[in-house]
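Materials and Methods. Structural model of Sugar ABC transporter permease. The 341-residue sequence of Sugar ABC transporter permease from Streptomyces koyangensis was retrieved and submitted for structure prediction as follows.
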Amino acid sequence: MTATAARRPAASGPGAGAAGPGLPSRGPAGARRRPRIPARLRKIGLPYLLLLPALLLELLVHLVPMVIGIWMAFKEITQFYIANWGDAPWAGLDNFALAVDFNAPVGEALLRSFFTTCLFTVLSVGLCWCLGTAAAIFMQDNFRGRGILRALFLTPYALPVYAAVITWAFMFQRDYGLVNHVLTDQLGLTGERPFWLIGDNAFVALLTVSVWKGWPFAFLIVMAGLQNIPKELYEAAAIDGAGVWQQIRRITIPSLAPVNQVLILVLFLWTFNDFNTPFVLFGDSAPESADLISIHIYQSSFVTWNFGSGSAMSALLLLFLLVVTAAYLLVTSRGRKSSDG
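The predicted structure was written out as tokens:
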């Protein structure tokens, strides 16, 4: 009996994990329980975890330089303190007072640049929206070659900014440019070859390049917004006798209101802050007619080496854009609520 009991296998069951006083317990009763994160908490925390790399990159690329720039606006940082910015004297609000003193040369030049930028932004955003909306509505009909034409329309948006603007700079050359060749030699619209990169025509050249590379973005966004409009609305309007223009005015434009709200705001911010286009087109000394505020701040900072004054202008520009953006969102949101109500 004793030998048989010794050869008998160990019993299995809930208590089988307790093999002896010196052995670790392996059964479910002795297993360690890991703390489990609630499913709701994991669901809430996952989006923030995925956004963490983008937030860190945004902090390093935008927020940290912005804070440093605002700090520089209160310092008298000139070419004499470039080597050691910490030794620059404290200027307080002197840089801001100099920028908004419109009777002084600095303030007068900044105000003129601000009005030029406002006019340029209004014309560029308006033309981009009109061309993009018209092209998107035209592309809603099925016809042969529509896909190829869509790809051609998006080409200016897909090209690198520097490559596109440099190409336009060659085309606007007075003696050998394509623009003067077509206008003067082919069409005979001008008696002599005009200058496009200097003088008053520089504003027209800058506006042309800005609209050319900006309207495909409006076309893309509006074309995506048109996909959400039910076709039954157009069919019912056609049965009621509404023409094409009445359908666009009564159905298309009101239905695109949420899309246009975001589109116009993005185009406004991009155009008002545009630095690459005028810098590549004219260099660091833009003509007075095309002296956008981005180039003007660059000249104040990196040409005259007055970083304190340039930082103050940048801070004022940031404040202006924040106020305009907040007012625009407030007005458009109220208009949408009133129309929905």
